[in-house]
Every structure is written in C-alpha cells, then in structure tokens.
Amino acid sequence: MEYSSYRQDQEEKDFIVFYHQLGFSYNDIIDEFYIQFKRIIMKGTISKIISKFNTTGNVEIFKSPGRPEVYPERYKRELARCICQEAEKSFRDLERDKILNPEGASKNPIQRTMDDYNIRSVVKPKRIDLMDQDSIQKRKKFALLHQSWTII
Q1: How much is the pLDDT for 22?
Q2: Buried-most residue among 22, 56, 94, 115 (CB within 10 A)?
C-alpha cells in the first residue's frame, strides 16, 4: 500500500472533487480512491483539495512563479556588455560596483547572467603578470611533460 499525502496529479484531484460533489463522505472517497488508483490518501489531503476547490473554483496545478528576477532582460544585456569590456573584474568587484550593479544583487544573479550569455570566467593568478614570456613557456612545457604525475 502506498500512502499519498501530497502531489496528486490532476486526474486524482478531479476524482476527489467529483465524489465530494456527489455527496460521498471522506471515508467513502478514501475507499473509492483506493479502488481506482491503488493508493491510500488521508482525510487531510481530501480536506485541502476540497478547500482549494471551494476557494478558487478549481484544483488546477499551477506552475510556481518562483523568485522575481533582480534585473530585467535589458539590464542583463547591458551587464553582459560591461563585463566583456571590463574583463579583468572579478565577481566580487562586479557585486560591489554601484554603477554596474545598482540593485546590489549578489554574485549568483551575476553568474547566471554570464551563463545566459555564454561568458566564462577564468582565474588568472597574479604571479603570471610578474613572469616574463620565457618563464611562462618553460612552465607550460614542464606542465605538459608531467601531466600524468600523481601524488602517492
């Protein structure tokens, strides 16, 4: 026996409302529901579905709207353009910049905006700036030769 206290599909909710409108008691609805769907539901589930039906007039499953966006699409495009122009800025810099981020959004919306526009961030170590091109080439050559090294 499978208990079902939440997440009924539309057919199951319509079934409960239909039998309630026919005047069936909660116990009779539970029995009929088990015969039809081979699942047990609780009286509280029936009560919630019936009260939603009485309040709204239907029991449709609506998609949750979620959290509102911090920035509309126009500002996201502008933010993406500015990020491309100022490529040396980090997420932390963008988050703190009052001109680029007037709403004070955290780094997550900024990261999502970058992902939407296929902008990838790269971490560039500061010591690379202090090295000359010869040293950089030697490091790359060494790294390629010793790629398969493992720590034991």
Answers
A1: 93
A2: 94
pLDDT at 8: 84
Per-domain residue ranges of the chain? 3-56, 70-120
Query: Using CA atoms, how far apart are residues 83 and 66, in angstroms rounded to an integer?
Result: 27
* C-alpha to C-alpha distance for 70 and 62, rounded to whole angstroms: 23
Q: Per 3-state DSSP, what percentage of the chain is helix, strand, and coil (rounded to 5)? A: 55, 5, 40
Is there a contact between 95 and 101 (Cβ–Cβ < 8 Å)?
Answer: yes
Confidence check: pLDDT of 57 > 50: yes
Q: Report the Cα 48 to chain-centroid distance in Å.
A: 27
Structure tokens at 19: 């039998």
What is the residue-wise DSSP string for 21-41? Answer: HTT--HHHHHHHHHHHHS-EE
Q: How far apart are CA 70 and CA 1, in angstroms?
A: 45
pLDDT at 150: 65
Residue 84's H or E segment, with its range, is: helix 73-85
Q: Quick one: pLDDT band at residue 132, thresholds 50, 70, 90? A: confident
* 97 band by pLDDT with thresholds 50, 70 and 90: confident
